[in-house]
Amino acid sequence: MYMIINSGSSSIKFKLFSTDKDEKIITEGIAERIGIDGRLVINYQNEEHKFEDKMNDHNIAVEMILKKLLSLKIIENYNQIETVGSRVVHGGEQIKESVVITPETKEIIKKCIKLAPLHNPGALVAIEAFEKIIPNVLQVAAFDTSFHQSLAPEQYLYPVPNSWYDKYEVRKYGFHGISYKYICEHFGKVFKKDVKKLNLVICHLGNGSSVCCVKNGVSFDTTMGFTPLAGLMMGTRSGDIDSSVIEYMVKETNSDVFKITQILNKESGLLGVSEVSSDMRDITAAASQNNSKAQKAFEMYTQRVAQTIVQYLNNLDREKIDGIVFTAGIGENSNIVRQAIIDKINIVNLEIDNKKNLEKYDDFKEISSTKSEIKIYAFRTNEEQMILNDIKKLKKNK
Ligand code: ADP
């Protein structure tokens, strides 16, 4: 069995896959409120099993997950888990693709804690917990940053003193890379195109949102930056704003940089503007009821994505553009958001086919009309599948 885990700052999501050819999901679940009180939910054979036990850290959470898998008889022993694949947010500049966990790769994850202080520690503790509980299990890490290591200095450097980069590693890293890589490989597979020749603008619109310009199969530019706070407006994140606002608001509210940055991360974006919710479903529902703040949030969100698409299309060779792809929670599901974004693009003749935009789909669908100059698609992303694919590749090369 393959165990794929995704550690957040206070949660661990997991999916257990069979090692059979069809790689079906045996069970999935989430350990959450780690360090607060602790709740574990495991879905198995259409039943939800809930446990409320204190989980002080990610180490205890992993122990709990494995113990409950045993007690629910989902696994008979830990050795049935032959590989663990972890999503790690930050791999810095050294890591350009998924890696087998070794003392050296763990050291790199550790070194990147200062760049991703909320996410990398949990991932590392979880990896070490699996090491302890299932000695010799093969562990692989896939990184959100690695897909963007192809960015050129013009793209990744900020116009600040060189020493900020040379001494302090301040640069654009970009995130959502596992999702972007999956979309590229899957797009190549379904349309039988060489991934190395793909030219796409991919909009990963979830609670965290970003856009990536893929040129010749690699990331050419992306909107998130040194941290995921940069770029588009998101569920609770502001995205790009004038950085002087921080100093100004510190003074005006007699606050500190930490608190203001916290507000920009947790209380801004759709939530801050709409004062309704960070969830796009609530925003579109409130907007349709003429809630003016929700309407404003919706306009601001879709405008920013539209502007980015235009900017990123301009990086690509017109004749070689394979499409614009919408993915992640909002991109996959909200026909209203997709329509509003495309409606805001005037410089290129893009058109959505209403009927196709509304159609239900499993994996992907084209949503552009025959008149559209560039094809437009909705694709379901699958980060776990991407990690699985990387595991298999690494196993083959071992
Ligand atoms: P993340 O992984 O960043 O937490 P997701 O990719 O799961 O986020 O996306 C969450 C977002 O997707 C939420 O804003 C949610 O409202 C939105 N979403 C999910 N389903 C729909 C839907 N049917 N229509 C509109 N938005 C949706």
Automatic annotation (TrEMBL):
<comment type="subunit">
    <text>Homodimer.</text>
</comment>
<dbReference type="InterPro" id="IPR023865">
    <property type="entry name" value="Aliphatic_acid_kinase_CS"/>
</dbReference>
<keyword id="KW-0418">Kinase</keyword>
<feature type="binding site">
    <location>
        <position position="13"/>
    </location>
    <ligand>
        <name>ATP</name>
    </ligand>
</feature>
<dbReference type="Pfam" id="PF00871">
    <property type="entry name" value="Acetate_kinase"/>
</dbReference>
<feature type="binding site">
    <location>
        <position position="383"/>
    </location>
    <ligand>
        <name>Mg(2+)</name>
    </ligand>
</feature>
<keyword id="KW-0460">Magnesium</keyword>
<keyword id="KW-0067">ATP-binding</keyword>
<feature type="binding site">
    <location>
        <position position="87"/>
    </location>
    <ligand>
        <name>substrate</name>
    </ligand>
</feature>
<keyword id="KW-0547">Nucleotide-binding</keyword>
<keyword id="KW-0479">Metal-binding</keyword>
<feature type="site" description="Transition state stabilizer">
    <location>
        <position position="237"/>
    </location>
</feature>
<protein>
    <recommendedName>
        <fullName>Acetate kinase</fullName>
        <ecNumber>2.7.2.1</ecNumber>
    </recommendedName>
</protein>
<dbReference type="GO" id="GO:0000287">
    <property type="term" value="F:magnesium ion binding"/>
</dbReference>
<feature type="active site" description="Proton donor/acceptor">
    <location>
        <position position="144"/>
    </location>
</feature>
<feature type="site" description="Transition state stabilizer">
    <location>
        <position position="176"/>
    </location>
</feature>
<dbReference type="GO" id="GO:0006085">
    <property type="term" value="P:acetyl-CoA biosynthetic process"/>
</dbReference>
<comment type="similarity">
    <text>Belongs to the acetokinase family.</text>
</comment>
<dbReference type="InterPro" id="IPR004372">
    <property type="entry name" value="Ac/propionate_kinase"/>
</dbReference>
<dbReference type="GO" id="GO:0008776">
    <property type="term" value="F:acetate kinase activity"/>
</dbReference>
<keyword id="KW-0808">Transferase</keyword>
<feature type="binding site">
    <location>
        <begin position="279"/>
        <end position="281"/>
    </location>
    <ligand>
        <name>ATP</name>
    </ligand>
</feature>
<comment type="pathway">
    <text>Metabolic intermediate biosynthesis; acetyl-CoA biosynthesis; acetyl-CoA from acetate: step 1/2.</text>
</comment>
<feature type="binding site">
    <location>
        <begin position="204"/>
        <end position="208"/>
    </location>
    <ligand>
        <name>ATP</name>
    </ligand>
</feature>
<keyword id="KW-0963">Cytoplasm</keyword>
<feature type="binding site">
    <location>
        <position position="6"/>
    </location>
    <ligand>
        <name>Mg(2+)</name>
    </ligand>
</feature>
<dbReference type="InterPro" id="IPR043129">
    <property type="entry name" value="ATPase_NBD"/>
</dbReference>
<feature type="binding site">
    <location>
        <begin position="329"/>
        <end position="333"/>
    </location>
    <ligand>
        <name>ATP</name>
    </ligand>
</feature>
<dbReference type="GO" id="GO:0005737">
    <property type="term" value="C:cytoplasm"/>
</dbReference>
<dbReference type="InterPro" id="IPR000890">
    <property type="entry name" value="Aliphatic_acid_kin_short-chain"/>
</dbReference>
<dbReference type="GO" id="GO:0006083">
    <property type="term" value="P:acetate metabolic process"/>
</dbReference>
<comment type="function">
    <text>Catalyzes the formation of acetyl phosphate from acetate and ATP. Can also catalyze the reverse reaction.</text>
</comment>
<dbReference type="GO" id="GO:0005524">
    <property type="term" value="F:ATP binding"/>
</dbReference>
